[in-house]
Amino acid sequence: GMDLLASIVALYSRLLSIIPRVMFHAAGEGMEAEYDDDDDMQVELSTSQYESLIGGFEQLFEEKCMRRVFTAQMRDVGSVCDFYATAARINQQWMYRMVNTLAFWPQSTRDDAPQHIVRNLWSECRASSVEGSQLPARGKDLFLLDTEGLTDRDVRNKSSIFEVFCRVYSHLLLIQDEDEMLNAKPGWPFELEEITGICASLRDLLYVFLWVEPTRTTHSRAPAKQGVFPAELKEPASKVLNILFSRDEHRSFLRDGFWTEDCAALGSERFVSEACGLDIEAPPTAVISGTARACKDVLKYFPHMVPFNARAKIFSAWIGEGRNDFFGRGTWVTIRRNYIMEDAFSEMNHLKAGLKNRVQVKFIDEHGMEEAGIDGGGVFKEFMHSFMSSAFSSLYALFQATPEGLLYPNPGSAVIASNHLDQFEFLGRMLGKAIFDGVLVDLPFAGFFINKLLGKTNSVDDLRSLDPQLHKNIMFIKSCEKSEVEDLCLYFNVFRDNYGQSTTVDLIPNGSDIPVTGSNRISYIYRLANFYLNVETREQCRAFVRGFSDLISPGMVRIFGEREFQKVLSGAADARIDVSDLRRNCNYSGGYSEDHETIRLFWQVVAELSREDQELLLKFVTSSPRAPLLGFRYLHPKFCIHKSVDEGGDKRLPTASTCMNLLRLPEYRTEETLREKLIYSLHHQQGFGLS
C-alpha cells in the first residue's frame, strides 16, 4: 500500500548515508557500529550485509518498482525525489535507471490518461508565492527564487524535485526528435508554448543565481533575495537548458534575442572586462574574486546568456593573451606548392604547442624555384588557406563530406594511411593555429563533429548533420507500427564497407543474432546512432581534438554553440560585408589617399556591388570571402589599396597580393571603367600575384 511504500522509501533514505562510509569485514562478521548522525563515523559491514543493503536499493531502482513509488507517492513527491536523486548521485547505474524509467513514462493519447511524470514534476517546480498567476513575474517563476516561509526540509525536497526534473527532461530530450518536440505530437509531456516557458524560467533562474546574487553580495549592500540554489543543481539545470539552446540553434522556435533578454549586465563592459582576465581552465579551488567567479560560472554553465559579440571579444582577448606568451622570432618553414600537406606535416608536426610561435613560410614553385616575397604575415595566411583546402579535400581522404557537403573524419582513414591518427592530430593542431592567428578558413564542418571539439555529447538528432536520409529512416522505425518493425528484418548490427574491406559490427554482444522488434527498437535506434556519431570515428576525433587542444584550450571554445563556432572559424556566412567598416580600416599607398578621386569612385562602386561581388572582392584581396568576426580592424595586415603605375594606364586590370591584403588599383578616370575592370577581375580572378 501507499503507507508501506512511503515507509520503505523513508528507511532507505536513512540508509543512504551508510554507503559512502562503509567499511568491509570478512564475511560472517557482524556490524560493528550502528548508524547515527555523526558524519565522521565509519560503518563496518560484512560483505553479505553490504550486498543485502545494495540489493534493497537495486530493487527500488527496478523499473516497475520506481513507477509504483512515483505514482503512489505524488503527494509526497519531494521526499521521493530526494531519495532517488541522492542515491543516483552515488551510483551512475542507478542514475541511468532513474532517468531512463521516468523519461520512458508510459505514453497515451487518451484524454483521461495520467500526465507524463515529467509534466507533474515541472508543475511542482512552478509552485510560487505569487497567487493567481499562471506566468509569474521574473524572479518568482520557480520556487527556488522565493523560498521564504519554507522549512529546510521543504527546500531540500523541492530542490530534489527540480534536480530530478532537469535530469529526466534532459534525457527525454535526447529521446524526443526535434519534429516531435516542435510539432507537439501526442504522448509527449509539453507543447511548444510550454517549452518556451521552461526555457525562460531556467534562463532566469541561472541568470539570478550565477550572476545577480553573487555580484549583489560582492558589490552591493542590498540584502540577498530569499532564494536557494545548491551547487549540485548547476550542472543538471544548465544541461537541459543547453540542449534546448542547441535545438533552437538548429531549428529556431524562439524569438530573436530570447537567450540574452533581460541579461544586459552580461553584455556590459564590466562583464567583458572581468571575463577577459579570467583563466577559464583554472581549477575550481583557485582563489578568485566573487565577480570573477560569477563570470566564470556564467561562461561555464550557460554562456548563451552573454551576447555572441561579447563572447567573441572575450575569446579574442584569451587568444591574444596566449599570443603574448609566445611572442618571439618564430620558425621558418619551406613548403613546395605541389606538396603542401606533405611538407607542412614534415616541417611543422614536431612543433606541437610550439605552433603558437610565429611561423614564416618560404614557397617553392613547381619549377623548384624559391618564390620572391617577404612573409610579414600575409604569406603564412595564404599558405594556411592553401593548406586547408588541400588537407581537408578528397585528395588525402582524411575527411569526407556528407550529402550536404559538410566535412567529418573518414571512418576508413586507417586504410588510407598507417599514420592516419598522427595526421588527424596535426590537422587539429593546424585548425587551432588558424584560430590562434585569426585566419578565417572556409571549412564547413558537420555539426556532430563540431560537438566533439566543444566537448558536447551527440544524440540521435545530430544524425541529421551526418546523413539526413539515415535519420529519416530510423525515425520511421521509431514511429511505425510494431508489426512493420519486424517486417524490416533488422538486427542489432551494422555493415561497413571501407575501400573494399567489408565488416559486420555488433551494436550489442551477439547483436547479429538479436532481431529488432517493436519492443527493443528504441534501444536499436540509439545504439545505431551512437555507432555512427560516436563510435565509428572515435579514434580519429580524439586525435583531432588532442591536436586542437595543443593550441586552443577546450574551455575557451565551449563558450560557443555549434553554429557559433563555425562562425568563429569561418566568419559570418549570412552577413553582408560592412563596406563602411572596411573603408574606415583601409590603408593607402603609392600616391593614393582617402581624398583621391579614383579612391572616391572605388568606394562608390564597391558600395553598389551585389553581396556576391563584394565577397568576391574580399576573397580577391584577402583570400577569404568573409569579414573578420569582430570587424576589419582585426584584419592583419590591413586592407590596402596601392596605386598601380604600370604601363597601360586605365586599360590594365586591378591586381592583388593576398599575402599582403593588397589591391593594386590603376588610376581609373571614370566610374564606368572602374566598375567594368574590377568586376572582370573578380569574376575571372585575374591579376592574382605575390608581392
Provide a compact summary of the structure:
The protein has 691 residues and is an alpha/beta fold. The chain has helices at residues 2-15, 47-60, 63-72, 77-90, 92-103, 117-125, 152-175, 178-182, 192-219, 234-250, 269-276, 290-301, 308-325, 340-348, 378-391, 413-416, 420-436, 447-453, 468-479, 482-487, 521-535, 538-549, 554-557, 562-570, 579-584, 597-608, 611-622, 671-684, and strands spanning 22-25, 43-46, 331-336, 359-364, 399-401, 407-409, 493-498, 501-506, 586-589, 639-644, 655-657, 662-666.
- What is the global morphology? globular
- Gyration radius (Cα, Å) is 30 Å
Determine the strand fraction and express it as a percent band. Answer: 5-15%
Low-pLDDT stretches are 21-40, 128-140, 218-226, 686-691
Read across the widest sheet, the strand sequence of neighbours is: 9-10-12-11
Class per helix and strand makeup = alpha/beta
Q: Give the distance, in angstroms, between the N- and C-terminal Cα atoms.
A: 87 Å
- Give the tally of β-strands: 12
The percent of residues in helical segments reads: 40-55%
What is the residue-averaged pLDDT? Answer: 84
